[in-house]
Specification:
single chain, 404 residues, mainly alpha, Na+/H+ antiporter like fold, disordered C terminus
Length: 404
């Protein structure tokens, strides 16, 4: 028994070491580390050199939820309200209207390209509509993209996850129950987001007030208190009908603003935890994929990626930023820098778990679109920003994790 445990621990340590090497490589070649983490999972899987057979989408979804809570909390904690406040309104517009327009446009295209039903296509479009905070920051870290644009993208990515999730779940409910409709989805979406925001503000304020007023025996306990805040924010919001993801992000924004006891220990702990969550999530998602199936949809996947990058995302950006003072060059940058990551792939596990027809096609298509769009956009953001003239004079030092 001891030998078996030792082998499992050895394999886990080796995989983490490989993930660290992948992160270093990704940082040097300026691509999101998620691509290499996903690749590591695919290599370990049944069609790779590891030969590990894994197809448990439900377990992946559950673990993915835990991972996303940790990632979103770290993102809000290290940003803080003072950083996000100047672009908060624009970020909300992109996270709501922008996500919806992107989902509908891409979903209609997916219906035609893959021969799916309308609702199946809209599930696919909704999954790829969500941008990924980890992927975006990996590329913007140390870049010269204007600070206002970078903060807008970061704020959007922290708040659009619940919108995309509710769209995916809503269209899935519509497939299962034909009497379900657009008004039912709206009735689910608006209260859930409103309650999530309210719970996030309340729990973030309460946690901030409590943590700053009590004196714990050791600085090492403050990260325990902040992890408890993340878990409580998600759990309370979800159980009481709100969006747990939005509650977590907003609670972290509130907690990360102003003085915080043992801030260095707390932030360092959550950065490490965020790293671990990313690596584990991307690795599991890579295990779920069968590379041979991706080749079968390569042509259609490239076409859908083109629709997302060149039409759906720009249309969503333009419509949702009309009230904001952005010029054409800045909107072009916001359109191009809307990177996809693990979140769309995680969302694609929902129809698989629910047994939606063509769910395997949806999952493979989402995976392919994420990889291709991230590879194309992620490696060209800096050159495009320079060409558009939306850069600053000097690079921004890293504030957060530097991988995926």
């Amino acid at each position: 028994m001891g030998g078996h445990d030792a082998e499992l621990i050895l394999i886990g340590g080796a995989l983490l070491a490989l993930a660290l090497a992948a992160a270093l490589l990704a940082d040097r070649i300026r691509v999101p580390g998620l691509l290499l983490f996903l690749g590591l999972g695919m290599l370990t899987g049944s069609e790779g050199v590891g030969g590990v057979a894994f197809d448990n989408a439900e377990l992946t979804r559950t673990l993915g939820t835990v991972g996303l809570v940790l990632i979103l909390f770290e993102g809000g904690l290290t940003a803080g309200w003072s950083e996000i406040r100047p672009v908060f309104g624009t970020a909300i517009g992109l996270a709501t209207l922008g996500t919806f327009v992107t989902a509908m446009t891409t979903g209609i295209a997916a219906t035609w390209i893959f021969g799916l039903s309308t609702l199946q296509g809209l599930i696919l479009g909704s999954a790829v509509a969500a941008t990924d905070s980890a992927a975006i920051f990996a590329v913007l870290r140390g870049s010269r993209v204007q600070r206002r644009l970078a903060l807008t993208l970061e704020g959007e990515s922290g708040m659009n996850d619940p919108v995309a999730l509710l769209l995916v779940v809503g269209f899935g409910e519509w497939i299962a129950d034909p009497s379900y409709g657009a008004l039912d989805m709206l009735g689910l979406l608006v209260p859930k987001l409103a309650l999530g925001a309210a719970f996030g503000l309340a729990l973030g304020w309460l946690a901030k007030r409590t943590i700053t007023r009590i004196e714990l025996p050791t600085p090492g306990l403050y990260p325990v208190a902040t992890v408890a805040t993340a878990a409580l924010s998600y759990g309370v919001a979800e159980i009481l009908g709100g969006s747990g993801f939005l509650a977590v992000y907003i609670a972290a924004l509130v907690l990360g603003t102003g003085p915080l006891p043992a801030r260095r220990a707390v932030v360092g702990f959550h950065q490490g935890l965020g790293w671990l969550a990313q690596i584990g999530l991307f690795f599991l998602l890579g295990l779920l994929v069968f590379p041979g199936e991706l080749l079968d949809i390569a042509g259609k996947g490239l076409l859908l990626s083109a629709v997302l990058i060149l039409l759906a995302r720009p249309l969503g950006v333009v419509l949702s930023t009309l009230p904001a003072r952005f010029d054409a060059r800045e909107r072009a940058m916001l359109s191009w820098a809307g990177l996809r990551g693990a979140i769309p792939i995680w969302l694609a596990t929902f129809p698989v778990v629910a047994g939606v027809a063509e769910s395997s096609t949806i999952f493979d298509a989402v995976f392919f679109v994420v990889v291709t769009s991230t590879l194309v956009q992620g490696t060209t953001i800096e050159p495009l920003a320079q060409r558009l003239g939306v850069t600053r004079g000097e690079t921004e030092p890293p504030r957060r994790r530097g991988s995926a």
